[in-house]
Amino acid sequence: MGVDLGTQGVRVLVVTDDGEVAGRGSAPLTGHRDDGRHEQLPAHWWDGVGAAARQALRTLPAERVRGLAVCGTSGTVLLTDSRGEPVTPALMYDDARAGAEARDAQEAGADVWRALGHRIQPTWALAKLLWLHRAGRGDGSEGPDARGGGGARVCHQADFITRRLVGHPVPADSSHALKTGYDVLHRAWPTEVLDRLGLSGLDFPAVTAPGTRLGTVCRAAAEATGLAEGTPVIAGMTDGCAAQLGSGAWGVGRWNTVLGTTLVLKGVTADPLHDPAGVLYNHLSPDGNWLPGGASSVGAGALSSAFPGADLQRLDRQAAGREPASVLAYPLVSRGERFPFLAAEAEAFLTGPPADDADHHAALLQGVALAERLCLAYVRLLGAPVEEPVTFTGGATRSPYWNQLRADVLGLPARIPEHTDSALGMAVLAAYGVRRASGGGGTRAGAPAAALADLAGMVRVRTVLDPRPEVRRRFDQPFAELVGELERRGWLPSETAAYAREHG
């Protein structure tokens, strides 16, 4: 079973070893958004997990579930008391109130973050914890158990659920802990940095590797979810990493793009990928490899903003005759860009007025594809291998035209899995963790007892796309022009621009 705690809902998939979905369930989530603020109530997550799990198990004996893992949104954090009860709301992954705190946290741990190759951003959990601390949240005013030392406990979204599943405190996984400041290279919290920030009074959890067995479903959780008591609970990963696992792109050099409202690129390397600009960060994969990646602010959200309620399939058909469009677009969903360059002042733009709606739609589709090409050029610049094929996941894969256009612009074959839900990635990780705990998988001495490659049958491929060289050549000039425009505006560093023009 894979459990995905998304922004708008909880999704659960129960998957067999050969990739058949044996059960699925979902439950809605709501939150509060206002001027950079985005909060949810953690109790609603647990209610949603219970409802979605019961729905997924309605025609399936609970005893068939051999294990489960949970993913949450990256950077979402709250504080709990020593019993695991919330003393603050959850500050969600895109809550952006901690701008000043991010700058302070970056300065306090500059040497640590430089070694790790990333920068602390306002939406990262460490900045939010500092914001909560300065706002007096979790300082003891919420109750007798809310003070550090016995104390206000740092809790990620997945931690909140796994604690309730097993009935006692559990370690956080290193994937969710990364944006809270966890040092994945040295496998430790940077205590000196936390002391400088005044956060030493908080109770930071122990951290374990994704795929580690955390415990088993307790009696109370079994009653709430319909799961069998004693079902193994496996440490999960963030939703972006879950999408990577669900894509089947597990070998070194393989890359997956999640295209939904925004675009996330994540790949596999044997060693951490160092990024002097700090716009890319590295998660530790369950199998000992690394998952470097970054999140851009371009994406399909620009389409719904430009054409609310429109027939996008009709616009896709019209866009096929506009290759390339008469104008270039950089279709940011919101102000500021995070990857493959950092520019807080960046704004969406068109290089001129489109001829009509079809031309405008085509420019947006092509703009995302060109940005995706720039992202891959950037990871090559950093020394990462890029092997064929790439994998496409996310809601945008519902557009066959856009899928083919993206493969053409990249000039790479692309695979699209049958199921692109992050919950599938957590089902894969649950299977991995159960095999690892039981000693199955038969790998070399000193290596994990299971290999992701042994689970390839869990990911079924729906579509394989071959790029059309003539279309790739058609977009070489628009790509060079977009790179030049981003450089001219002062957003894209000259070194990146020069490399992209020559090797992109």
Automatic annotation (TrEMBL):
Transmembrane segments: none
N-terminal signal peptide: none
Key word Metal-binding present: no
One term of GO molecular function: kinase activity
UniProt domain Carbohydrate kinase FGGY C-terminal: residue ranges: 257-433
Source domain of life: Bacteria
Carbohydrate kinase FGGY N-terminal domain boundaries: 2-246
Pfam families named among the record's database cross-references: FGGY_C, FGGY_N
SUPFAM superfamilies: Actin-like ATPase domain
Keyword Nuclease: no
Keyword list, A-Z: Carbohydrate metabolism, Kinase, Transferase, Xylose metabolism
Homology family: Belongs to the FGGY kinase family.
Protein name (Swiss-Prot/TrEMBL): FGGY-family carbohydrate kinase
